[in-house]
What we know:
The protein is an all-alpha fold. The protein has a domain at about 15-35. About 45% of the residues lie in helices and about 0% in strands. The chain contains 1 helix and no strands.
Amino acid sequence: MSRDLHLPSALTRRDVLVRAANGFGGIALQSLLARDASARSRINPLGAKLPHLPGKAKSVIFMFMVG
Length: 67
């Protein structure tokens, strides 16, 4: 067999590395998005909670100051 065999449709070494790098990037992105989605689904026990009753404003002070 000849070592000088050249296939024009074959991928170059650079093409293979680029495709592999894109594949690893996609896997990493999927992992980050899955981690972000699971973090959003968890309930934070120390987070802000809704009040039992809606608040009522008894008075409002509005100040308009120029300068």
